[in-house]
Structures are given as structure tokens and as C-alpha cells.
Amino acid sequence: MKLLLASSNPGKLFEYLEMARGAGIEMNLLPNFDDFPVFEESAPTFAENAVGKALHYSRLVNETVLADDSGLVVAALGGQPGVHSARYAGPGASDADRVQKLLRETAALEGDERRACFVCIIALANKGRAMAVVSDLAAGVITKAPRGRGGFGYDPVFLFEELGQTFAELTPEEKAHYSHRGRAFKKLLYVISSSTAATF
Fold first, then answer.
1. Cis peptide before 81 (omega within 30 of 0)
2. Cα–Cα distance for residue pair 53/68, rounded to 1 Å
3. Residue 66: closest CA among 148, 113, 4
């Protein structure tokens, strides 16, 4: 199966390409992604943004398009950063800027107030028709300071308690197995394998 990934996020690109290679799926970046009309991820939910993005780009190419929307949800912050995870610290902010803002916002939180989860919704679409939507999450705790040099985004401050490490301290293989994106991708593989080739 061949998929085109609709994303310009380098961390996300790396993870999907690695997971697809391990699953025997041919995945390529959507060619000249920056030249296409931009899809504004302005919906209030991850699912609406993921599906909308997949449908949008699938109308512009002949291949099946994979798109996701994902982010960090902290209940004690009213669900923030949530769908605004990539824009949490404003336009042009870096991953480090977003992490520092999150640490400031959670500085007074203690115990269970620091619990959070990463959410990922993956959508597949072909020629403007939604073909699959899957989701999963990874639960953890926001640390008081960054740890680790791997991953991207909020990974350095997301402690995955099962392993006692932040996502930034995990190997790429470990993250692909335990992360919200890895878990959602496994569900997508199951959907694909359970469907006829003609469906996709």
C-alpha cells in the first residue's frame, strides 16, 4: 500500500516514515507540500482537524493521503494546550518556547494535577472520501523540568510512568511502541489489513 503524508512537521515526518518502513507500507511525503493551498486547522477537536486535513489534500492528488492531528492535553489547564499544541506559545514559537510556557503554566500544580495525555487522531482519505479514522492516547505526567534529547515538541516534559522516562529519553523504537502516534498507527494497520485492497 502507498500513502502520502500530509505534514511539514519534521519530527512527525520522521516518526511516520520509520513506522511505515517497519510495517512494509510505502509512505512518501506529499510532493511540494508547501505549494498546496493550506488547510487551516481551526476546528475545536483533533478529529475534525485530522479528517478535514486528509480530505482537503486528498482532493489535490491521486493517491491516498494520511493526515493526523495530535497534541498534549492537561486536564488541570482546562484541556490546554490541546488542539493549539503547536501554536501554544504564539506564531513562530519554537518547541523550547512551548515547553517553557507549559512549565510556567503548570508550575503551581502538584500530584495528580500534573497528569496529562498525548492524543493522536489519524485519518485516511482518497479523492475527497474519508476511508479510515483511528485514535489513541498515551497517559503521563508533566515533569518540573525537561529531560532527554530525543523526540520533539513536549516530549522532554512528558513522563511516561510505565518506563519511568520522558518521551525524549526513549529510543525511537520505544516511542513508536508506546506513544499515542505509534498506538494509533497500529490501529490503522489493523484497519488496513482487515479491508480489501479495493477499499484503499
1. yes
2. 8
3. 4
> Which grid coordinates are listed for 146?
525537561
- Retrieve residue 141's grid coordinates: 505526567
112 carries an active-site annotation: no
**Domains of the chain from N-terminus onward:** 2-199 (3.90.950.10)
What are the CB-based long-range contacts (under 8 Å, 24+) for 18-23? Answer: 18/172, 18/176, 19/176, 19/181, 19/182, 19/185, 22/176, 23/185, 23/189
pLDDT of 197 higher than 70: no
Q: Which member of 69, 95, 97, 136 is catalytic?
A: 69
**Residue 77 pLDDT > 60, yes or no?**
yes
Q: Classify burial at 170, counting beta carbons within 10 Å of its beta carbon; exposed 0-12, middle 13-18, buried 19 or more.
A: buried
Taking only the tens place, the pLDDT of each residue in 29-74 is: 898 888 999 999 999 999 999 999 999 999 999 999 999 999 999 9
Widest CA span of the chain, in angstroms?
A: 54
Q: Beta-carbon neighbour count of residue 121 at 10 Å? A: 24
- How many residues comprise the chain? 200
